[in-house]
Amino acid sequence: MSTDKTRKEVDRVIRGAQKASRELAARRPAKINTALRNMAALLAGERKRIATENRKDLAAARKKGLPAAMQDRLHLSDKTFRSMIDGLRTVARLDAPLGSTYDERTRPNGLRIYKVKAPIGVVALIYESRPNVTVDAAAICLKSQNAVVLRGGSEAFYSNRVLARLFSRALADAGLPREAAGFIPTTDRAAVDLLLARDDLIDLVIPRGGESLIRRVVEKARMPVIKHYRGVCHVFVSAHADMRTALPIVVNAKTQRPGVCNAMETLLLDRALADKNKKALLEALIAEGVELRGDKTVRSLMKGIGRATEEDWEAEYLDLRLAVAVVDGVRGAIEHINRYGSHHTDAILSRKAAEIKAFSRDVDSSSVIINASTRFSDGGEYGMGCEIGISTDKLHARGPMGVEDLTTYKWIVEGKGQIRS
Amino acid sequence: MSTDKTRKEVDRVIRGAQKASRELAARRPAKINTALRNMAALLAGERKRIATENRKDLAAARKKGLPAAMQDRLHLSDKTFRSMIDGLRTVARLDAPLGSTYDERTRPNGLRIYKVKAPIGVVALIYESRPNVTVDAAAICLKSQNAVVLRGGSEAFYSNRVLARLFSRALADAGLPREAAGFIPTTDRAAVDLLLARDDLIDLVIPRGGESLIRRVVEKARMPVIKHYRGVCHVFVSAHADMRTALPIVVNAKTQRPGVCNAMETLLLDRALADKNKKALLEALIAEGVELRGDKTVRSLMKGIGRATEEDWEAEYLDLRLAVAVVDGVRGAIEHINRYGSHHTDAILSRKAAEIKAFSRDVDSSSVIINASTRFSDGGEYGMGCEIGISTDKLHARGPMGVEDLTTYKWIVEGKGQIRS
């Protein structure tokens, strides 16, 4: 496709999405829920057609020799289907996030002023690899009565396209504009830059994928971006920790699912923690198959621990590997985390209130966990019912983001003829 | 200054600000209020020194032949001094925006989860012309316990520098880090691009100034931007308006202070409004010296009305000039506003509930005003006590922005040894 043709296609899709977003904002939430349930039914009913498209992507991936893990992520398995369908039904059941009024005040001149929750408008999703993101993320955007513009990776083009088309049908069957689920129908890489320049029509872009994709989006986007770079999560074990709970928490944070963003990547041990307790923690991790990389003090505790370099303190291993440092109390832990962390999720294990208070206030992260596993940092675990990602930004939404976080507000000022003097 | 030297200076200032921001976040709000009051006292006490620096800028402006209006904006007059001092004292008296907890929930596994308000961190201000922004905007950033990095226009360099230095002294005198009010000590234009690339150290940038400055910031910034492009505000007079209040509102919205962003720039008249009422509105405006530019129908109502072009519908005149269009009822008004407006502030004058409801919901603007003047769209009028600007963005903060809008939150998860299974 020529760049000129790509430009026209991008323009058509985002103009359609903007128009649809205005219509969507004016409709009753029940209509949106009907569209989400329609989509769940279509996923079940059109299973064969989807599988056919998915096989095209899988064949291309094999031919290109993509890594097995990537081929695996492309595959729309039975489990993925069940999860997409369950997700749609869960989101349909959630309370409508719009319309509530808040922050009301009446001014001395009689003006009644308040905020009312409103959709953001058009949300663009730029994502890689997993085609189920097309369904999961679009569902959350639509639930908040935003139109969505989908731009998936070229490796999942056929799968994404069929899923987006079905979502348009699900919308139309509910009497809603099909353009509210817009899909960029080209693998031309220029389309992404074209999208990111259109702050006149797109209100928010959410990138989901590897760090290089996200950096590219941040560099080019003129509209607001909500992103999640990395999860370099820490657990600090204080000398005042309860070792009966600290041991299982540390093991759980590292090993329960090492490949995800809220798994622990660095363990921080209080210098004042008894050596036998330090050793007990390290031995428990080694017993679970974790490869340790420590600073000098850690390595002096026992044999077989590798040397940690500066890169290890910043590493998101996503694997059974762990950096371990000894720090000087809670202040040392805070400094280490703020220097090397990724502002995602960090935990303190302690029974001392003053330490917990300082850690909670001074660690500059989206979630601070006290005496529990970092693995709880998740929209589902926080009771949101669903999650579109975990923001490591500080503006608009921080930490796990749900349906509420895809809304904005407007100010309403009710008068009776007031003028300004 | 060489680019290399500029790079070093920018790096020094923003690193200092980041370090200071962590210290600031941990201090009691009372300390900040002391610093704000110190600054008010310094403005009074160091009046002569400030005037000397201000004269340097004024002399340079005359020499360069800057327009009189621009020279006027540069001048730190008695009135500007009083306004800066009053502003500081008002902000010092406002409630501390941090520390409150909200959205609390207890999960079935016993985890207690809530949000707590937190500072954003480092806020960069990039502004033009008026040196009092140095004081007014910095005060609001600091009140929310953020560090601020100030980059004013070269035409106000000496005035901005002395004000920033005094703010650093006011902080130090309160026992707070002076680097919390950072100032870029060079007029090298490269400094702005260098700042905007540092999303590792700056959390938010707020541009204040003309549209070209703002567009440049949006294009280059890698961190979030909160901005205000233009105020193209509309008043729609419905056939169901109460003409006794409509007349004074329309005149007030246009003429009470035409040079500001919340003044009316386009008047929309309902086609069904009686011709005599249409004429009465136009005559009242003409009587106040307003130059009108209308569409065909408007021009047929009376003589002496200029022809409005497409540019007029998008114009922010900031002057006694007004575009006037006749529209087909409330739907026509909504369409016109969403097509040509700037998402700032738009008003409906009507006594019909269904019309008001549709207008409030479907006009995509930060403030919707019902039966009152657009001139009320302002932080002070909304009861915020102060204002750092009016956001025409939809993310994070929309409409007038106060101290609360310069905060973020973090999630706190309190456990008793919970692990994820």
Describe this structure as you would to a colleague.
2 copies of one chain form a homodimer. With 421 residues, the first copy, chain A, is of the alpha/beta class. Chain A has 2 domains: 3-227 and 400-413, Aldehyde Dehydrogenase, Chain A, domain 1, CATH 3.40.605.10; 233-381, Aldehyde Dehydrogenase, Chain A, domain 2. Helix content of chain A is 44%, strand content 21%. Chain A is built from 15 helices and 16 strands. Chain A has helices spanning 3-25, 29-45, 47-64, 68-74, 78-93, 132-143, 157-173, 190-196, 211-220, 243-255, 275-287, 296-301, 310-314, 329-340, 353-362, and strands spanning 101-106, 112-119, 122-127, 147-151, 181-183, 204-208, 233-237, 264-270, 291-294, 306-307, 321-327, 345-349, 367-372, 389-391, 399-401, 407-418. Chain A has a 7-stranded parallel beta sheet with strand order 10-9-11-8-7-12-13, sandwiched between helices. In chain A, helix 15 (353-362) links the parallel strand 12 (345-349) and strand 13 (367-372). Chain A is globular. The N and C termini of chain A lie far apart (59 Å). Chains A and B meet through helix 10, helix 15, strand 13 and strand 16 of A and helix 10, helix 15, strand 13 and strand 16 of B. Strand 13 (367-372) of chain A pairs parallel with strand 16 (407-418) of chain B, so a sheet runs across the interface.
